[in-house]
Amino acid sequence: MSLSTDAAATAVPAAAEDSIYRKVAFRIMPLLIVCYVIAYLDRVNVGFAKLQMSQDLGFSETVFGLGAGIFFLGYFFFEVPSNIILHRVGARVWMARIMITWGILSALFMFVENAWQFYVLRFLLGLAEAGFYPGVILYLTYWFPSSRRAKMFAIFQAGSPAAGIFGNPLSGWIMQNFNGTNGWAGWQWMFLLEAIPAVVLGIVVLAYLDNSVKGAKWLAHEEKTLLAANIAADTKGKSESHSLREILAEPRVWLMCLIYFSFVMGQYGLTFWLPTLVKASGVTGDFNIGLLSAIPFICAIVAMIVFSRSADARRERRWHLVVPAMIGTVGFVVAATASSTTVAIIFLSLAAAGVLACAPLFWSLPTAFLSGGAAAAGIAMINSVANLAGFASPYLIGTLRDMTGSSAIGMYVLAGFLVLGAVLVLSVPAKLVNR
Question: Which of 17, 181, 190, 235 is 20 to 30 Å from the Cα of 424, by its Cα?
Answer without folding.
Answer: 235
